[in-house]
Amino acid sequence: MRKIITGILIIITAVSVVTGCSKAENAADYIAPALASISADEPTMQEEEPAAVQAIAFIEETAGETAIETTEKITETTPVTTAATEASTETVAETAPEPPPLPPVVIPQKPPRAANDKWLALTFDDGPGRYTQKILDLLEYHGGRATFFVVGAYVWNQRQVINNIIAQGSEAAGHSWHHYNLTQIDEQAVKDQITYTDNAILSITGVSPPKFFRPPFGAYNNIVREAAREIGTAIVLWNIDPRDWQRRDADYLYDYIMDKAADGAVILCHDIYETTAQAMERVIPDLIEQGYKLVTVSELLGETLTAGLIYYSEKHILN
Ligand SMILES: [Zn+2]
């Protein structure tokens, strides 16, 4: 019996090593099961606003416990406390010089929208992750841009990727610091989750992040909206959700996006799944082939962005 248990432990250890699980990736992995349990019975977000609103209401009602449990796990595995930061800074200072500063980021020029352009915004949540750079490379190769909603707690370890996002012409916007369910914390904590992340993006890139963010799980309530309004930021959700966290199937993801794609749409994906990156190998060139320009949320929504309002797509805005 002991041999069998030892064997199982060896196999588990080997699998962990082979899959290369880091602490950050584990933290990201915790998000997925929580999303799965929260959204298992949730109606799919449709392009009609009422269904999307219903879906959000459902998330608000059901997201609570699992999301908090999830964020606690993230906190445990992703040390972000002041004490931990100070300790690690001291260790680094004793053993290695400060890393050289990254070169300044230059935002490429973006062409204006022509009268018959079809614009579409691909968005990627929960990174920067293992596949962010691959998706960026695909966008660069085929001539598209996207919006990456990043988790604040991850960005300092991914400074180069954050800079690469901006330099490629894509954009990095906030997805909270801890991936908390913002409906479960008070208004000041909501503001902190948003502003800490925006400040980190600004510190790294030297470029102000856009005046919008995406709440984890798409969950919001009046307190979240009021916090957003007071700090001058809008809430951007989505109107096409292929559930790439649930269906880890590149073919399915490709078919879903190509079927639903429409002018003015905002598509939700996650840059932490290999199948999503694989799907993008065909999604990005084929959308462009179909005449879509892949733009950032800032380009798509532009001057219509108003603090505290909720945007599902270019045409679906909740006042
Ligand atoms: Zn998320």
Description:
This protein is an alpha/beta fold and 319 residues long. 51% of the residues lie in helices and 11% in strands. Strand 8 and strand 9 (317-318) form a beta hairpin. Helix 2 (23-39) packs antiparallel against helix 4 (64-77). Mean pLDDT is 77; it is low at 5-93. The protein binds zinc ion. Residues 31, 125-126, 175, 179, 216 line the site of zinc ion (ZN).
Structure summarized in a few sentences:
The protein is α/β, with parallel strands linked by helices. The chain has 13 helices and nine strands.
Keywords:
319 residues; TIM Barrel; 51% helix; binds zinc ion
**For the report, how would you describe the main beta sheet?**
5 strands, parallel
SSE pattern, N- to C-terminal: HHHHHEHEHHEHEHEHEHEHEE
Rg, rounded, reads 20 Å
- Indicate the proportion of strand residues: 5-15%
Q: How far is the first residue's CA from the last residue's CA?
A: 63 Å
What is the SS-derived class? alpha/beta
How many DSSP-defined strands?
Answer: 9
What binds here, in terms of ligands, is: zinc ion
CATH class descriptor name of the domain at 118-318? Alpha Beta
Write down the CATH topology of the domain at 118-318: TIM Barrel
Mean pLDDT: 77
Question: Topology of this structure?
Answer:
Elements: H1 2-19, H2 23-39, H3 49-62, H4 64-77, H5 82-95, E1 118-127, H6 132-142, E2 147-150, H7 152-155, H8 159-168, E3 171-174, H9 187-205, E4 212-213, H10 222-231, E5 234-236, H11 250-260, E6 266-270, H12 274-289, E7 292-294, H13 297-301, E8 310-311, E9 317-318
Parallel strand pairs: 1-2, 1-6, 1-7, 2-3, 4-5, 5-8
Antiparallel strand pairs: 8-9
Helix pairs in contact: 2-4, 6-8, 6-12, 9-10, 11-12
Bound molecules: zinc ion.
Residues 31, 125-126, 175, 179, 216 line the site of zinc ion.
